[in-house]
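User: Sequence in, structure out. Go.
Assistant: Echoing your sequence, followed by the structure tokens.
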Amino acid sequence: MMYAPEHLAEKRYEKYKAALRPADWFPQIKTLDFESLAESDRVYLQDFGVFNSELEEETFMLRVRVPGGRVGARNFKTIAELAQKYDLTLLLTARSGMQIHGIEPENILELFETVNALEGLSTWQTFGDNVRNIVTDPYDGVGESCEIEAFPIIDALHERFHKNPELVGMLPRRISVGITGMRENAWPLFSNDLFLGLAEKEGVKGFNVYMGGKNTEISQSADIFIPPEEAVDFVMAVIMAFDRHGLREKRMKSRLFHMIEHYGMEEVKRFVAEFYGKPWQSEGKLLLQKRHFADKEPLKDGKWGHRYRTDYGVIEPSEAQKIADWTLQEGGELRIGIDQQLYIVGVGEARPSFAKRRTSPTVVACAGSEYCPFSYWSIKEEARYLPVEKLIEHDIRVGFSGCMKGCGRHKHTDIGIVGLRNAKFGREDRSARIFLGCEYTRGKRVGEAVLRSVPVKALERMVLLLITAFEESGKRDFETFVAEVLNRFDERFVEFYFLARYESGRAPTLDPSREMAEIARAFGEKPYVDKALSEGWQKASDAIVAKLWHAEKIATVYHVDPAKRRSR
């Protein structure tokens, strides 16, 4: 097939794959001049966890895959010592992995080889068109509600794919996998391309299969039940089917979600069956139940697990070494959760000797503008605009992304926030888009943009209004409030309601049994109420936003200067 030049530009990654497989390119890594890389080198390096861009040629980032989040205290201490030695920044990721930022060209190869020599860890397939780090619950295997330990499955899968030359960098796009054998769930695992959730069929515990999730979509039931002993073969069959039949023409349409959208779920299942080669059963009863976890949790063997609160994924090397040392001293195991927190499991009653940070462990924040060229905000810093104490009190999960790509999983949490720009707010041009409506525990729906534009100075108060409305509802948790209250109303009405509540100071009861017009009139004789009833909720919301926050003189929006961004 002949393609127009602009189409070939879209297929840039496919051209590199066709010319030379990443696994065949790999031996060149030891002879590279890391101070003068070709574009092809940058593309291939990503398949092995090394990231460098033309914007910041002078530093590198190394991403570490940690299967199932089981990093191990000794491994963690070694990485922390390297970070301290070379003055690097450590970030924990929302896929239970790590990123090491700020590596100089002359040091990248040493760090690459050292990390890849650590038992159980690897940097392979952490970027690019690959099988990304497979995630599970941080209390997998030890939690009181664990029915099936997922890690042996994850470990076996890791050995099957992570250095397979036919797969390294060769997929149509990335594929993410999540598996849990826990009854109690606190995590947005339905955000994975492929998710295996604990289920029961005819008295046998196994997994229901869900496919097609991503940061902006939720996995859908494939109507398949898989026993634990078949899980490795089944996941590999999905990966191989995606590799063979996945869409490659446009990168933005190359995820498993788009393959299902294009062919339909039944045809995709037929592709999977080609590689699986065995019959399967229809889905069983999903056993996932919502659970809130504390900083200290009892384990099924009588020991304890501790959650250590990071600074929204950032952790200082000296701090990391102390945690590793304490874990080793107490005979525990160190794990990384998909919430960017550290978990110390299998220890006695003793509490960790280090102080508890007052950040909210329920907030997942993307890397932000200091580390990512796509982000508008320094998300790790702006997370401090949130009402932390209230989030902790009610265990409200927040996903905070710096752009619509959604690395903070803003559409898979109780309250999703995306940091944007809005010149209409004057000098304070940062604005937030707030997402609500997600029912993530059992994978019912993603959140959608409800409050379309709130200036950063109003963010904390607006989130507090959301929490106050939840408290007034008497519902047991925020997700239930969303399902039984907010999702019963039109999204544009919900936006109007909270903006009107912000502007007026009045608090009409948000009762789904009442008419929306009746609730609106309770705000009194306001021009925007008349506008809402005559022109619609969106027009009225726009009027409130303009009244509250639009500047008389529009300021020039200045984007982040890459030269002033903190190095990776």
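User: And one key feature?
Assistant: Residues 161 and 167 are 7 Å apart (CA to CA).
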